[in-house]
Design brief:
The protein has 138 residues and is α+β, with helices and mostly antiparallel strands. The protein has five helices and five strands. The strands form two sheets. Strands 3-4-5 form a three-stranded antiparallel beta sheet.
Length: 138
């Protein structure tokens, strides 16, 4: 029983790694081939990941990281020892410009968008709030 749970977790991690490491959106058949996971199991895992927004699919049905996977990656990468310095710079810039300031990276996969890694809101009464980790059109 314990080995089945570990095996299920291993399979899920394997699928996530295949999608995360792919240079472009990857097909289910490529994931099945590369991972060795049985086809029905792989499709079930892909559907569960898609339902939870960990992955998304393009018009061809190929998979790429979704907003939840990107959010976790950002949390791991950007909530480290550099956060205080980064926020101090953004606070200073926001005060000087009297505008919302953010740090975002562009991503072209599957379509052009940017993902905010950090932002400091201005004190204006009317604001547009885009959550950190949320992909937005360029």
């Amino acid at each position: 029983m314990v080995s089945e749970k570990v095996n299920s977790v291993d399979r899920l991690i394997n699928v996530i790694e295949r999608i995360g490491e792919a240079k472009s959106p990857i097909s289910a058949s490529d994931i099945i081939f590369e991972s060795g996971i049985p086809k029905p199991t792989c499709h079930r895992l892909l559907q569960q990941l898609d339902d939870a927004n960990y992955i998304q699919s393009d018009e061809r049905g190929h998979f790429y990281p979704g907003s939840q996977m990107l959010s976790i990656a950002l949390d791991v990468r950007w909530t480290n020892q550099h956060k205080l310095q980064r926020q101090a710079i953004l606070h200073g810039l926001s005060r000087k410009l009297e505008e919302t300031c953010g740090l975002a990276l562009a991503n072209d996969d599957p379509s052009p968008h940017m993902v905010y890694y950090d932002r400091i809101q201005t004190n204006w009464p009317l604001q547009i709030v885009i959550p950190v980790g949320f992909p937005t059109p360029v």
